[in-house]
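Exercise: predict the fold of this chain.
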Amino acid sequence: MALLDSEQVSQDLNRRFAEPLPDFYRRRIIFWKDADREFEEKLPEITLENAKLVALTGTNNFAVKKLLTVDDTTSNYLVYFPEQIADEDNWLLPIELYSEEFRADLISMWMDEMGMGRAVSLRKQIKDYRNFFKNKGHRAKVANLKTPVTTPAQLHLAVMAVLCGLKDFQPNGIIRSVFTAWMNQDTNDIYQKFVDFGAKDAFWAMVAQAFGYREEEGNLGRLAAHILLTAATRTMHPDYLAGLDGFISSPHQAYCYDFVSEWMHSDENMHLYKLAQDVEEEIRLPSRFEKLPVKELAETELFPCIHECILTSLMTEIRDQIINVDTITAMVEKRRTCAWYELVKDYYEGILQVANMQAFFLTHSAGFHTVEARKIWKEYTEDYYMMDTYYRRFHVAFSRSLKSPHPLLEDLFKHVADNVEGLYETWYLAQLGSNWSTAAAEELARYGRILEVPQQVDFYRDKIKNADTRIFVIISDALRYEVAVTLTEQLRRETQAKVVLNSCSAIFPTVTKFGMAALLPHEKLTVEENANGLSVHADGTSTDVGYRDAILKKANPASIAVKYKDIVLMKRQERSERMKGNKVVYIYHNKIDETSHTDEALVFPSCEETIDEIKNMVRIIVNEFGGVNILITADHGFLYTYSPLSEDGKVDKTTVGEEDVEVDRRYLVTRKGAKPQYLLPVKFVADDANYDAFSPRESIRIKKKGGGLNFVHGGISLQEMVVPVVEYHYLRNRSKEYQQNKMKYDTKPVSLNLLSTNRKICNMIFSLNFYQKEPVGDNREAATYLLYFVDSEGKQVSDTQKIIADKQSQNNQDRTFRCSFNLKSLKFSNKETYYLVIADETGLQLPQREEFTIDIAFAVDEFDFFS
């Protein structure tokens, strides 16, 4: 063992003697403690500049006392003290009590180096950890810990913290680090360091005191099971864990729960996820939990298999035609705030849409029986379209799940998808389609349109021709009405604008070449027959892509037609130059229809992308082009069904007759006089005596060679014919409309308030009620709030709960939430004030604070480890 050299010791001692004397002291006496006699032989080498050296020999103690108290009361003295003497036998104790102490052994040097002073209580433990502390790097890390080490318990924790690579010696962090290195003790490098450096016993003593885990031979795997199962009893009835009593320590429930909850809601919770998976597999928890009602599992989140058990139960019921709307809705609302929800989010979102579809079915279970076509149109644009939205959202979630399917849930989700098809296609599309086809048949045959419904062919005349300001028109191919509803809602919430959604009837056939032509300025539309079928002309000019700019300029020279794809690729200055001087700007966007040509299964996900791209285009128009008035519309809508059609859903047209001019899945154009079976006549747009047009009823497809059966358009269904017209008017801050209606247009997150009136907490586990003050709507957006309790100094004293405030109901009672809280295992005072904090997860709002008192007679105090 290397010692300090005599020269360095002399320097340290002379420095000490040279320091100013404390108040009322006339000299300095320093006792040099050297119980191991490491410096006894080197005393002659010690040189003191302003002090005398006297060494105790074991027989001269009284003589030294006389020297210091009688013979020489003015000189500075260094008293070398090479042995340990009990206080009652120590003649020099009175002098020692008012003197100073010096140590020059290695332990003292290490203690000085680590800023521990000369605390006697730490010396023995540092000796016990000699192999650890002789590593200079270890000493440096102890010195740099966030909290100074002042007690023996802290020294144990500090050693373990450094071996874990931590900068704080909190027990929870140490145990998390050990578990993160995994549960096989032989290969767990952190645990093996504990063994190598003598910290193993301290580790097991710590977990015994904190978690109540005591076994003759400690085992990390059993420790993990002990902690998780003990924590689970906080939210789950102990009867459901019967037979696992050996893993559970009820007195330590609170600390186990705090430990797991803190880890579960940290950024490192995937380590806990894998740990919990191993534990639940080892003790066969899935087979135990799958027998329980889902409501008994709802509150417990620490085992990943609980998500799987809940989803399996609910999806099995859906497969078996049992769809409990309230149960599914409540369960999804509860579980979406739980840990690891993101890993199974698609399945929860999918069954939530099934519940929405079932609720729609129950509301309209009597069927659809409206007689007048225009009234059905109104009902669709105000209500019925929502079923299309639920179906789309289900398949967006279903599509995402297929990218990384859960092995236990994949097949069940596919059974759910099959049932969704029955509800959507067999009931909704069939019955609504039948009602609509019957009600609209006469007007479509006689006029080719629905009376008293705005027409797509009048779009330019009604919206553009007489506009007194610059106007931008975004035409998104196949943007059907229900997708535009979602777009409108987002534009209202995310931008400072007046946004109005209306509809118009698409021209028949509801395909791109006719719809795009109808939106251009024209007096008359005509068709010409060619080798590929029909081409559409506006006042004699082809309306194909290359001619649209010229048609616009003919109506208004200050017009331009551009593609969205071209605009986003341009530099800002370049596209601004392109727009300069133009009063009418047509922007053609194509995502949904384009996607259908490559992969029909991606049509619904492409609707989400379409919404994002259109919002981006609106941003460019407002921020870069200075645009204020924007119209967003489409050429047509579409029908999409996920499952392959049965033969009953097709009309055979595999053989083209001489009278057929153009045949597609949802329409047929023939020469005059043809009378195809099973098709409804629709007056042809061109009003040309040479042609007749027809469409299948409901959602039936025309059977022909080639693909493209799932995604179709061209027919007369509401999904194809109802074209959205979104009128977007950006409101500048100085505009009169904005100034008069700030509250209407300023978007804010919905607020969350405490509903419970009792402000006294008497149990470690308790529940509170909250309410969402405003419904999510045009200028109120959903918000996520974190809720927890703190003491007067801001220290968190409970777990953290989450509320996703996104309810849209106008009924106040439907916008309530109930949260259960767990207090941490601390000592509470009924004389102190505690606060419930309601904090916006984004941090953009000031947190709310509600005062509470906590009066718990037997609350647990914080652990004094190793006491």
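Check your answer against the key: The first strand starts at residue 29 and ends at 33.
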